[in-house]
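To whoever is on call:

I kicked off a structure prediction for a single chain this morning and the downstream step that reads the tokens threw a length-mismatch warning. I double-checked the sequence; it's 78 residues and nothing unusual in it as far as I can see. Pasting both halves so you can look.
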Amino acid sequence: MYTTYHLSSAQDVSTEILEAIKATFKSRPITIIVEEDDSDLELTANMKAVLDERLQEDENTYLSAEESIDQLNKKYGL
């Protein structure tokens, strides 16, 4: 079982959150991972170039997201 807390600032960590974690997981072992939210990622020039190339491809050869993921799973075992 896992629970995710999204906070707008590290200052939002409160004793209430810690108490909620304790209540949820009781005496079971847990791991706490803290990571910075980097959702404001900016595209690099290289990323933009790849996307521009993809926009120029023939629409008849497009793969759906499901087909693309299926091919990646087969090739890389994801």
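Update from on-call: the warning came from a stale cache, not from the record. Cleared it. Sanity check on the structure: Residues 1-36 form one domain.
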